[in-house]
Each structure stands twice: as structure tokens, then as C-alpha cells.
Amino acid sequence: YRLHGESKSMSAPLRKAADHLRVFEEFFARDNLPADVLAVERESRSRSCLTAAEYFYAGLEQRRARARLLCGLRLFPRHVSPSSLSLLAKTFLPRALVRRLRALRRG
């Protein structure tokens, strides 16, 4: 079978990424947030970007994944980890190769 952007398995991660970013923006747009919450906004925004990057990569949107990942790491460099660097490297792989590797992994 062929995966495409409209298939359930491909579109679900993309919706999750968009929803995740939207909810984050809506939460921090509130004007009644306590100071201790606002104090961690940058770190939280970074983590939100990293989470969205994982979803975008799962949906084979490597460019969007890379953009969110780099944004998150710029916002809070302490989030650099072997996992985030691995994901960054994988975002440069061609989409067709990622599909094949995933199919092989599934057996």
C-alpha cells in the first residue's frame, strides 16, 4: 500500500503537531498567567517546538520538523540532546528513504 498525506497514518501526526502548537499559543496568549508560568515560557515554547518537530517528522514533513526543531533549540539550547540531534539528522533524509526504512523496521 502507499502512504500519502491524506491517509490516517500520515495526517494524524500532522494534525497533532498543528494542534499542539495552537494550544501552546492559546495558553500563553492569556493575560492572566501567573509570573512563575511566564518565567518558563521560553523553555516551554522550546519543548513545544521539539514535540511538534517529532510529530512533523512522524508525518514525513522533514522541513517542517527541522524548522520546529531548530527553533526549539535556539530558544533553549539546553534542550540539545542526542535525541534532538538524531532527529535533526533524520530530517535531512529523503522522504522516500524514510518510508522504506520504516517499512523495513515494521517487517
Structure description:
The chain has 107 residues and is mainly α. It contains six helices and no strands. Residues 1-5 have low confidence and may be disordered.
List descriptors.
mainly alpha, 6 helices, 107 residues, disordered N terminus, 74% helix, 0% strand
Question: Which band does the percent of strand residues land in?
Answer: under 5%
Give the number of helices: 6
Task: Determine the N-to-C terminus distance.
Answer: 14 Å
Radius of gyration: 16 Å
Mean pLDDT: 91
Reported for the largest beta sheet, the result is:
none
Helical proportion?
over 70%
Tell me the total number of β-strands: 0
Shape, please? elongated
Class from helix and strand fractions:
mainly alpha
Could you write a compact summary of the structure shown?
The chain has helices spanning 8-29, 35-38, 41-58, 62-75, 82-90, 95-106. The protein is mainly alpha-helical. Residues 1-5 have low confidence and may be disordered.
What is the topology?
Layout: H1 8-29, H2 35-38, H3 41-58, H4 62-75, H5 82-90, H6 95-106
